[in-house]
Write a structure and sequence with these properties.
Radius of gyration of chain A: 19 Å
CATH superfamily of the largest domain in chain A: Nucleoside Triphosphate Pyrophosphohydrolase
Distance between the termini of chain A: 50 Å
Order of helices and strands of chain A: EEEEHEHEEHEHHEEH
Number of domains of chain A: 2
Number of strands of chain A: 10
Shape of chain A: elongated
Helix content of chain A: 25-40%
Oligomer: homodimer
Strand content of chain A: 25-35%
CATH topology of the largest domain in chain A: Nucleoside Triphosphate Pyrophosphohydrolase
Largest sheet of chain A: 7 strands, mixed
CATH class of the largest domain in chain A: Alpha Beta
DNA sequence: CCAAAAGTGTTGAAGTTACACCCATGC
DNA sequence: GCATGGGTGTAACTTCAACACTTTTGG
């Protein structure tokens, strides 16, 4: 029988980029205390792989298939649901609310435009919140978010995963702002462009921005072959 | 009550360096089929933190406290114990041998000289085996070992954790061979020495090797303050 | 014509790689 | 005195950081 396993859950940190700042998808548990937000997550099924469970949770939530997903690690204090509000919530959704639960955290990168909000089995409302504005979350989700940010910062330096956050066509400035948002520090425009171009993972399109009140910028797509090569082998250092 | 949690285990990849090659501590399950070796690991207690469980398992096995330990991630196919020999073993040691188990893997670095083999609750015999000689392990332990090696390769480039594998006093050649063993590639002797010295994490002692049939080499200790600083903040790249 | 963002090169400093010989010891 | 590993410097090259002005568009 494929039943929910009450001891193991997955939680997902879904990042999205709105061309200005980094956002995270959080679900709202309805009441309006300060820790009402949580990361999307759920128990796994007994015969489900961990990665499959995370994929399923994300697909239920966002409707997106083939989402970029990577495990961060396992979390789970014996006392992770010590807050009153967390315990009450668990009682309302779980058959064994008192069980010790280990959660396996994932981080995920999506193109914000792909996400169409809709209800899911574990969330009535999900919404994008700026990473910088989050100072409190349910359970140990703030710790998980923090680990996800660190992982993202590290990985962006050695793999071109940032492209998962951008639409098919994008400008170098957008990519630039993306890196600044993730690394939380300014990067020199000219040096950034030079480095990216040398990696040879993007190709200019025969197309420019239009309708902008300034010089229209060149649009690029990324170069799938090179991208996949670098995603596999990584590169030693982006040099940032 | 603090009972074993039959759903969650920890497994540890314990690396040791014998001045020539990298070794891993494996336990022998006694029978002599080809997959008889396993990584040390055990179920966690219900009220135990994951990190504490790993620390406990390692202390039971090696008697070493304050061991360097870091989580790799969670593993656990629904079918991870599909081999006949694994199932039989589980029946002999677990109260719920059929349960779905998620294991949280850790990697650990120890000074080989510190390890005094002795029996533990989950292993009659533990022994060091060269990493390169391992081609088969119980359950999904080969996959875990492989993840541990990758993690170690990455981390050694940005944190000076290698010192956990060496005795208090060591020579630059030993450190050099350690890096080569971990990275599995030759490193230029002079360039290696220059880089390490520039990091300023080691200090020469007023002492040299003796009894060696060649020029005795300078002994070093590592510089704890600088080491701890770099362990925290990391460095962008060792340049290897 | 003004505001706004796009796009572009150079220079000095630092870091990287590759490479070969002498040194101190035990036997 | 010989075998063994220890220890050292330099030159060519590449990479990096810092920095300011011109261009194109919409309004």
């Amino acid at each position: 029988m494929n039943e929910l396993n009450p001891h193991i859950s997955v939680d997902c940190v879904v990042f999205g980029f709105d061309f200005e700042k980094l956002n995270v998808l959080v679900i709202d548990r309805g009441s309006n205390d300060t820790s009402r937000m949580a990361l999307p997550g759920n128990l796994i099924y007994n015969y489900e792989h961990l990665d499959e469970a995370a994929t399923r949770v994300l697909e239920e939530l966002t409707g997106i298939k083939n989402i970029y997903l990577e495990q961060i690690g396992a979390f789970g204090d014996p006392l992770r649901a010590k807050k009153q509000s967390d315990q009450e919530w668990l009682k309302s959704i779980r058959s064994e609310p008192g069980a010790r639960v280990i959660t396996v955290a994932y981080f995920s990168l999506v193109k914000m435009a792909d996400y169409i909000p809709h209800a899911s089995s574990f969330a009535k409302v999900a919404s994008w919140v700026s990473v910088k504005e989050i100072s409190l979350l349910a359970f140990d989700h703030l710790e998980i978010l923090s680990a996800a940010k660190d992982t993202l910062k590290q990985k962006i330096k050695i793999q071109p995963i940032g492209f998962n956050l951008l639409p098919e066509k994008f400008t170098l400035s957008q990519l630039h702002r993306l890196y600044e948002a993730i690394l939380e520090k300014p990067l020199d425009k000219r040096n950034f462009r030079r480095k990216i171009q040398k990696l040879d993972i993007i190709s200019p399109l025969r197309e420019k921005q239009s309708g902008v009140p300034h010089k229209p910028s060149q649009l690029y797509k990324f170069n799938k072959e090179k991208y996949e090569l670098l995603t596999k082998i990584g590169f030693d250092n982006f040099g940032f």
